[in-house]
């Protein structure tokens, strides 16, 4: 592991980002193909109404994960990059296992919130009474299947190549399960059980991979030293709170609109929205991949390289992401309806009006891929959070003020919220990089 890491560190930051993204893209390209296939099976076997129920339950679970999760992968990378650079595996291990404890605490809290939400507000969420128990247990399983900390360990070590193999378990497992369930008899409960089991399997494999890559760090004994972790990493609690709040806000942007469509418009509309949203995410997959690569690399560059390299890296990745975002929007505009018809059938082709604004939202998210890592690595997590809050405020204003009613109105509100977040993040990141550059210039010219 040490030799491989040393070899990786000799390349330029951008080349490492592209190499890591290439590894992820290879795995995610395969995942995208599998994803489209099992999504087609779900939509065609369940039909619009039951697919809507599946979507609402899945969306509720994802929202609960965001509420209870602590985005610990960001914490591991933000504070662990320096320890990895110095090969201080004891401190890295204490940090990683403390984050694992945070994940476990979040899962327990999430189960309590799930019980209150699902059994107390099932009618508001438009959940079928027959699926309430299933929705609760599915949400609990997904909360415990969170792989945030081991993901952070693998990314901090820059072993994106290894992560590809573990993450392939989910698309392969879901496609295999979808085919088997389609043959045995499709039901919402069977699909949800399969999805939960596969995600729990991935979580176990991810922890095993983290242990294999860095056995010095992934040890039970490090869990007893969580107090020392706080002493080793000043500002960790504040950063965790900020990133958790940011993840919650991000969940409002991602899952909130789906739940609103289900509650305000109906289950069938939620099914249309979910399929359009899934297709948009598949087309904008590069956003998530670049975020993973950029976040890790920015943290390492901040520790080991000059401010000029740091600034250039942010500009290069932002430019690449902006071009990819434009391509995503054009693809949705010209081929969106045909893709929806191909996947779900003629009934789902009506979602084309939802797909285009969601693609616009995805393009803004993609274009801003470098901004949040830059702010997080420069003690600007609070500023990143304020930008996300501004986006949610614009989204809410759009829902209230835009003419018309229905899923398309909500989708355009999501696009407006994403645009607002992009502009705020861009301004804040530019100011942060410029200020860092000016302060370093002043330091260099100061007389001895």
TrEMBL record:
Keywords from the UniProt entry: Cell membrane, Membrane, Transmembrane, Transmembrane helix
Domain of life: Bacteria
Bilayer-crossing regions: 21-41, 53-74, 95-122, 134-157, 164-185, 313-334, 354-375, 387-404, 410-430
Record GO cellular component, one term: plasma membrane
Topological relation to the membrane, as annotated: Multi-pass membrane protein
Subcellular location: Cell membrane
Pfam families: Polysacc_synt (PF01943)
Xref: PANTHER family: INNER MEMBRANE PROTEIN YGHQ (PTHR30250:SF31), PST FAMILY PREDICTED COLANIC ACID TRANSPORTER (PTHR30250)
Protein name in the entry: Membrane protein involved in the export of O-antigen and teichoic acid
Organism: Novosphingobium mathurense
Taxonomic path: Bacteria, Pseudomonadati, Pseudomonadota, Alphaproteobacteria, Sphingomonadales
């Amino acid at each position: 592991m040490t030799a491989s890491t040393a070899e990786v560190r000799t390349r330029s930051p951008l080349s490492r980002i592209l190499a890591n993204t290439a590894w992820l893209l290879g795995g995610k390209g395969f995942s995208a193909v599998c994803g489209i296939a099992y999504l087609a099976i779900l939509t065609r076997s369940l039909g619009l109404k039951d697919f809507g129920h599946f979507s609402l339950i899945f969306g509720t679970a994802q929202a609960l994960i965001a509420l209870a999760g602590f985005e610990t992968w960001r914490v591991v990378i933000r504070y662990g990059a320096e320890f990895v650079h110095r090969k201080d595996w004891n401190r890295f291990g204490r940090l990683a296992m403390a984050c694992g404890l945070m994940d476990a605490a979040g899962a327990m809290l999430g189960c309590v919130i799930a019980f209150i939400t699902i059994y107390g507000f099932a009618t508001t969420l438009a959940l079928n009474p027959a699926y309430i128990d299933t929705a609760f247990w599915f949400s609990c399983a997904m909360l415990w299947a969170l792989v945030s900390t081991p993901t952070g360990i693998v990314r901090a070590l820059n072993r994106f190549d290894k992560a590809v193999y573990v993450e392939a378990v989910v698309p392969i497992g879901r496609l295999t399960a979808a085919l088997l369930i389609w043959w045995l008899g499709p039901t919402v409960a069977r699909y949800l059980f399969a999805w939960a089991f596969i995600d729990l399997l991935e979580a176990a494999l991810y922890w095993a991979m983290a242990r294999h890559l860095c056995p010095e760090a992934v040890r039970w004994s490090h869990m007893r030293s969580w107090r020392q972790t706080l002493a080793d990493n000043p500002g960790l609690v504040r950063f965790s709170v900020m990133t958790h709040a940011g993840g919650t806000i991000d969940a409002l942007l991602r899952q909130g609109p789906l739940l609103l469509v289900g509650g305000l418009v109906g289950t069938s509309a939620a099914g249309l929205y979910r399929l359009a949203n899934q297709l948009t995410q598949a087309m904008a997959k590069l956003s998530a991949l670049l975020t993973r690569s950029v976040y890790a690399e920015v943290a390492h560059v901040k520790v080991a390289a000059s401010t000029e390299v740091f600034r250039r890296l942010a500009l290069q990745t932002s430019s690449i992401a902006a071009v990819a975002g434009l391509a995503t929007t054009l693809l949705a505009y010209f081929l969106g309806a045909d893709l929806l018809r191909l996947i779900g059938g003629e009934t789902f082709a009506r979602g084309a009006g939802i797909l285009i604004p969601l693609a616009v939202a995805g393009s803004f998210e993609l274009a801003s891929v470098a901004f949040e890592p830059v702010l997080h690595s420069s003690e600007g997590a609070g500023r990143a959070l304020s930008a996300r809050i501004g986006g949610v405020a614009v989204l809410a204003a759009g829902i209230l003020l835009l003419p018309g009613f229905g899923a398309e109105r909500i989708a355009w509100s999501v696009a407006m919220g994403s645009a607002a977040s992009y502009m705020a993040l861009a301004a804040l990141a530019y100011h942060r990089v410029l200020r860092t550059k000016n302060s370093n210039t002043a330091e260099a010219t100061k007389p001895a």
